[in-house]
């Protein structure tokens, strides 16, 4: 027992001595600092992935356009964009045999300017100013959204930019653009109020928000159309427009000057009402076609239009006004009673 214990003690002493020698000869291992956390925001999509998304979008739209089938859009198109394209297919089918058949708006996924959000929160938003599509004379502003990390990016809006419109400068490249909170202060209007305020301007000549918006092509066109229709039906009835903001999400991205690009959708109801019993009130064109081919109004006829609109909202300052960058306006339904 003693001999065994003595051997163990000798072995322990030898190991301790060896450990001491190795320790005295060891080269210190340098400590490696962890990579610092990124301090600059980064875009939610890189250029190559965005190109793949846009290519897939364009292929999806082309297939759906050829078939005239809105269900084929659903993997890559949703929200207002899906409703408007569905309405366009219905219009094209209903008017195919008329003298003025409806042609769906040309779309493209070829990007000219890419505005990519850099938020870590979901959903992620991307805006793309396209090249001018074949058969068109102005570029488009597309919005793409990714709801969760598991979802694909889908197009939620497309908007034809008004001729000669100047897009506000945004941060692009490796940094990306922040999404602007809907209740952000310091702008002409908080982004979350812009669509509803513009809808009020289109509905009411004395809107409290009229001075907040510069004159624009959509507003001028709708005003002129309502004036012409009112004159045409005044001997038999009346016509009125009511515009309301839809429940679709309002999308935002920041501009370099501290403003915001805001995109949303609206619905316009155009109501023809017969007020003189012995008179004849009739509508024509696409309204009559969607009404079943008979444009005579016995009581009321209501036409619904889908609208998608883009705004530039500048920082609040004396005389600053919101600019409407572009819009889309498509007849979606007609009902008589």
Automatic annotation (TrEMBL):
What superkingdom does the record give? Bacteria
Q: Locate the DUF8094 domain: which residues?
A: 41-323
UniProt keyword terms in alphabetical order: Signal
Q: Which residues form the signal peptide?
A: 1-26
Which Pfam families does the annotation name? DUF8094
This chain belongs to which protein, by name?
DUF8094 domain-containing protein
Q: Identify the species of origin.
A: Occultella glacieicola
